[in-house]
Amino acid sequence: MPRFSHYEAALGSQLFEKVKNCRVLMVGAGGIGCELLKNLVMSGFNQIELVDLDTIDLSNLNRQFLFQKQHIKKSKAQVARESALKFNPNANIVAHHANIKDPQFSIEWFKSFDIVMNALDNLDARRHVNTMCLVANIPLIESGSEGYLGQVTIIKKGETECYECQPKPTRKTYPVCTIRSTPSSPIHCIVWAKSYLFNQLFGIPEEEDEELDKELNDENADEIANLKAETLALKRIREAMGSQDYPKIVFQKIFNDDINRLLIMEDMWKTRKQPVPLVYEELEKLKDTESQMDQTTNSNTLRDQRLWSLTENFSIFLESIKRLSTQLLAEKMTNPDASLTFDKDDIDAMDFITATSNLRARIFGIEEKTKFQVKAMAGNIIPAIATTNAIVAGMIVMQAFKVLNGDLNECKTVYCSPDRRPKSILSELLNKPNPDCSVCQSVHVTLNVNVKKATLRDFLKEVIQGHDEDEEDVCEVSVEEGGRIIYDVEYDDNLDVTFEKLNITDGKMVKVTPESEDDEKYPTVFAISHRETFESPNTWFHIDGDITSRSRTQVNSNAHKRKLDDSEIDPQEESSRKRPAVIENEVIVQDDDLIMTEDGPQRLIVID
Amino acid sequence: MNIDKKTQKYDRQLRLWQASGQAALENSKVCLINGTATGCEILKDLVLPGIGSFTVVDKKEVDGADAGISFFLDEDRIGTNRAQAVTELLQELNEDVRGFYLAEDPISLIENRLDYFLQFTIVIATDIPEKPLLKLSEALWNANIPLFIVRTTGFIGYFRIVHPEHTVVETHPDSIMDLRLDVPFPALEQYAKTFDFDSMDNMDHGHIPYVVILLKYLDQWKKDHDGKLPCTSAEKKQFKQIIESGRRNVDEENFAEALANAWRAFTATKVPHQVQEIFNDPACETLTANSSSFWILARAIRDFVANEGQGLLPLAGSVPDMKADTSTFVSLQTIYRQKAKAEIAIVRSHVNKILNSIGRTSDFIHDDEIDSFCKHAAFIQVIRYRSLKEEYISDPKKAEIDRWLQDPQDNIVHYVLIRAIDKFYEANNRYPGIILNFKL
């Protein structure tokens, strides 16, 4: 009996044909991704591309069933593909071990799919795919799970809410002085160990830790200057990495010298308890006496789930520094610029964070935590099980059937939530787009530009203001790229810099927001497409699309006219224009992934 | 696998059900009747998180359609025994789990060797007709083993649990906050009195734990209001203003915490309704030699509440994180812990008395069990199901079903259809809707 006879019977031959012929993009091959890929190949989907930048970790194996122990450290996308092919050798699966934000995954590439399914674990990538699908006008099925909670919804340009129509919670930040000088709770010590010390010793020290709020004010100015000096000193110490004494030198610096320095600031301790520096030699002595007294401390209890003693923290601190240094130095042999990034599932890193934050807590008289607890606090750990992911992946496919059948109006947002017993699966109608959403309501056009020649000034004059004369009036817009401010009314440093030098290259998105009061608030987003030559020798620009329709931002009428007069239409564009589902060029985009770089835990708009 | 590696592998689920949940999982023996696609999906979700063992009972051979719908069957397996095939493939998912299979017909096993199923912790039955299902369910019911009945057809799925009673102690509530602010016990009251707010320097004042702040102001309030708690919203507002006025500067986070937690001081500590219902249950009233430890403990707690507890459950004993210096925090923690410990000891004596009266020795219930029960006493749950016999034969609730059927949106229609399919199968020995070369 043919393999899919049951399915054909259940779906009907018409839908089954659509399923067979549709091109699916799956973003993420993790918890939901593994389940989803299984469902797709088992329900007759034949053309699947999947993208995941991650590699397999031990802590994935409790749910990501396409992976086994021998696959640890291998590409999730590749292994998922291989495992799935074993079960349906006829499926055509293309795996990309890459970041979905890479320029190779262009708008045109997104347009080659009929449906996109997100199985992601972070806000940043979700935002990106949301944007790309809006631009490409491809239906997106968005999903997430956290513990027993799961959610699936559909995003379709102009018809439903997009991922950003509702605000997302932002990540908590801490004032830098609290973290560096006056911690008062365990989380302060953990953030210090993870975001500050780990990066200083093993990561890229210049990288700003986004958990720290570095806003200067009169009160903290002196202390921030001190902290800068302290950081510099630590950087010098880093040069001793690998030497026998390195752990001791670091210990001496951070748990003794820096604390003594803080104690000099008497004002700081008028209303706070004074910290007590740790002395290396004393701890060493204590360790020796303890080890003589007792050789078998708690060997039967889970080391991760009980509190470590002072000397345990001390020893583990020294050991983990040694191990992390060895690891980093080994990596530097092949790549001199190598650095370590914090990974909550890396045993050495978690040992280091736990011991370091506990030693600091001891100094400041703050409660200490077990490694298990520290991991949850440092790592934003999202609980995850196979069951919820399986339910979510099933719901994704059910919604995909409706989308493919052209029944978008029958699609629902579906939740699974055991808290709402007796009904643990609930659905609600899809919402209409939020008219104030700055993402799906902005105007999107493609800007062909010679990035090597064109400067920001050229752009503002020719494209935004629309005149070539050397008038020195201020252009009342702000220009952003990937969260960076390139230009605004008070910041014109970049005017004579080329696009290329500004790192605004092929595939990037530039958002222009009108700042003057009488303008409509919707921004215009330009998808940058590099082009060397233009019909007119006097310009570096050519716009595809209509930027006047929604926005009153002034547009260069010449540039626009050129478009209308243009008889040469890109053949690829012409062919895609024939696809009924795609309305060319009238698109929506914004790229504002600036704050969130990690997956914060959020109720129901989640993860994995 | 060593113990740390194991914690790491199961980290994401341990956050959900803790070590005790994991231990329960690891001690379980699961039986799957018929290695169907749905059955395999279920086992996959149990094998991955690490059950102790599973056994698949199935005599059928793998056919092409099996390979089409079950992810665990590839085409090379066509013609081999389905129980063996799925067991081998499921086993690959987790090396910590032991997989077994029995290549026998489950229906004849139910007919001839019903005892076979009594060795398992749970039994999952897929694709079993009503008659043998009834027989199996009765045996499992009497042995207190939960049975899961699972049915899928096309887009419709059905499952039901058959189990006389499921009791849960660790219900994993969001937080177990049991501070007794409204009814402080003597040691707590004494401790709060040792804080003289006015004579403290700014540093100490900024480190008074919020529990003490609330106790202090609530004590004063009660003195001024005939021993009553703030009750109306105006009174609650006023109480918060009093706290606010005691704050020396806005930087005092402990006062901010006190204000944020002030509502806890207005909330009367009492036995929750669903726990009271458990106390009133006949199973709690009349204990026998067959009573489970849950009911013995529930009764011991009930006796405690009626006597030493003076109407209150045993103290949970944990204290949340709060702004305080370490030594103050530790003393506060110790006060709650010691009180909890003392109450656990009293509950232990009730437990022993009960065990003695039903002819059991005191080691029937371990101290750990009592600790956990006391800690979760406010959150315990009992779930009861109907027997299959009641549903199919003695009390099918026809009137209700008829009423539900009036609503065309109601899922009950699927229930009726699934039952009808079973009846059809019983009469014709084939499923309805089968066309010549299309065999389900």
From TrEMBL, chain A:
<feature type="binding site">
    <location>
        <position position="52"/>
    </location>
    <ligand>
        <name>ATP</name>
    </ligand>
</feature>
<feature type="domain" description="Ubiquitin/SUMO-activating enzyme ubiquitin-like">
    <location>
        <begin position="448"/>
        <end position="533"/>
    </location>
</feature>
<keyword id="KW-0808">Transferase</keyword>
<feature type="binding site">
    <location>
        <position position="440"/>
    </location>
    <ligand>
        <name>Zn(2+)</name>
    </ligand>
</feature>
<dbReference type="InterPro" id="IPR042449">
    <property type="entry name" value="Ub-E1_IAD_1"/>
</dbReference>
<feature type="binding site">
    <location>
        <begin position="121"/>
        <end position="126"/>
    </location>
    <ligand>
        <name>ATP</name>
    </ligand>
</feature>
<comment type="similarity">
    <text>Belongs to the ubiquitin-activating E1 family.</text>
</comment>
<feature type="domain" description="THIF-type NAD/FAD binding fold">
    <location>
        <begin position="11"/>
        <end position="438"/>
    </location>
</feature>
<feature type="binding site">
    <location>
        <position position="76"/>
    </location>
    <ligand>
        <name>ATP</name>
    </ligand>
</feature>
<feature type="binding site">
    <location>
        <position position="162"/>
    </location>
    <ligand>
        <name>Zn(2+)</name>
    </ligand>
</feature>
<dbReference type="GO" id="GO:0046872">
    <property type="term" value="F:metal ion binding"/>
</dbReference>
<keyword id="KW-0539">Nucleus</keyword>
<protein>
    <recommendedName>
        <fullName>Ubiquitin-activating enzyme E1-like</fullName>
    </recommendedName>
</protein>
<dbReference type="GO" id="GO:0031510">
    <property type="term" value="C:SUMO activating enzyme complex"/>
</dbReference>
<keyword id="KW-0067">ATP-binding</keyword>
<dbReference type="GO" id="GO:0019948">
    <property type="term" value="F:SUMO activating enzyme activity"/>
</dbReference>
<feature type="region of interest" description="Disordered">
    <location>
        <begin position="553"/>
        <end position="582"/>
    </location>
</feature>
<dbReference type="GO" id="GO:0005737">
    <property type="term" value="C:cytoplasm"/>
</dbReference>
<comment type="subunit">
    <text>Heterodimer.</text>
</comment>
<feature type="domain" description="Ubiquitin-activating enzyme SCCH">
    <location>
        <begin position="288"/>
        <end position="375"/>
    </location>
</feature>
<dbReference type="GO" id="GO:0016740">
    <property type="term" value="F:transferase activity"/>
</dbReference>
<dbReference type="InterPro" id="IPR033127">
    <property type="entry name" value="UBQ-activ_enz_E1_Cys_AS"/>
</dbReference>
UniProtKB/TrEMBL annotation, chain B:
<dbReference type="GO" id="GO:0045116">
    <property type="term" value="P:protein neddylation"/>
</dbReference>
<dbReference type="InterPro" id="IPR030667">
    <property type="entry name" value="APP-BP1"/>
</dbReference>
<feature type="domain" description="THIF-type NAD/FAD binding fold">
    <location>
        <begin position="10"/>
        <end position="167"/>
    </location>
</feature>
<dbReference type="GO" id="GO:0005737">
    <property type="term" value="C:cytoplasm"/>
</dbReference>
<dbReference type="Pfam" id="PF00899">
    <property type="entry name" value="ThiF"/>
</dbReference>
<keyword id="KW-0833">Ubl conjugation pathway</keyword>
<comment type="similarity">
    <text>Belongs to the ubiquitin-activating E1 family. ULA1 subfamily.</text>
</comment>
<dbReference type="GO" id="GO:0019781">
    <property type="term" value="F:NEDD8 activating enzyme activity"/>
</dbReference>
<protein>
    <recommendedName>
        <fullName>NEDD8-activating enzyme E1 regulatory subunit</fullName>
    </recommendedName>
</protein>
<dbReference type="InterPro" id="IPR000594">
    <property type="entry name" value="ThiF_NAD_FAD-bd"/>
</dbReference>
<dbReference type="InterPro" id="IPR035985">
    <property type="entry name" value="Ubiquitin-activating_enz"/>
</dbReference>
<dbReference type="InterPro" id="IPR045886">
    <property type="entry name" value="ThiF/MoeB/HesA"/>
</dbReference>
<comment type="pathway">
    <text>Protein modification; protein neddylation.</text>
</comment>
